[in-house]
Specification:
13 strands, eight-stranded mixed beta sheet, alpha/beta, globular, five-stranded antiparallel beta sheet
Amino acid sequence: MHASHTTPAGAASVDEGLRTGLAELLDGLPPRQAAQSVERLMANYRGDTPTDAPVLRDRADVTAYAAYRMPATFEAVRAALAAFQDAAPGWAPTGHVDIGGGTGAATWAVAASWPEGEHRTTVLDWAEPALALGRELAGRAAGPNSLREAEWRRAVIGDGLRLPDTDLVTVSYVLGELTAGDRDAVIGEAARAGRVVVLVEPGTPDGYLRIRAARDQLIAAGLRIAAPCPHSGGCPVEPGRDWCHFAARVGRSSLHRRVKGGSLPYEDEKFSYVVAVRPDAALDAAVTAASRVVRRPQLRKGQVLLDLCTPDEALRRETVSKRHGPLYREARDTGWGAVWPPADAPEDGGGAETP
């Protein structure tokens, strides 16, 4: 998410450790086989047919998928967690369960978000090859103990899933693989077990609709929304006309460049997400009443146009001009996905204009 957030000490080493580990894994896989596996897997990833079987079939599939998708999933989940951390800077999990965690991208993102923490992570997935590779990758990590000591457990992701009570539950890029019944069961169990629930899906219209439905289910279960929405009311986005999503910058690996034929050293991973918290004195501050920038800010001569989702359950465009002084400078530095106005915004900049 293109929003301001201070990277925790140690997070950069977690990021580098992940990329180094993935590069070492890919060294043993013929480039053509890796590219073919990625192309097949991405065709499945973009599809809209839920499945009741693992998508990742063997070591080659898992290695190719991890090298191609883990960096993007890691950055998307880390961006969602950063938005939550901005709202609840003093909170840290002692326990984390990653549902459908596969090779562990969300587990790495949680470790990067709280690198000094001593939380215990359990990764649940139905694909043993994915768990095996995730365990191997995390076991070699030089970063936080939460990576090396994570538990990797096979489980059916769907109806019948049972979780231990825990501080943090993550479900990333999983809901689209499930049938409607299994999806409802997983979200319901996450809402029952977790104090904080983080759901991330691809930033497509369908991915947004899954997040929107999950958001409604979490609210019905008694949780409140901490991010990205500035309220727990109805989503003001009109389905079919628009969708709520954000973007995270991802460095492209050599495998990305081979498969996509791109020349840029990076790409933007589009994702939709929701963070919900159980009513709790320690988490009350996470439910913010500030607006959220829901589109890339548009820079004009002497103006910044900000598309906002507001606490009164509305979408609004705000124009911040040079005459607003310090607030204008804040607007120029504000990113897609950021809270507006920033907590440290000057009070003497004047009110922004709402057309």
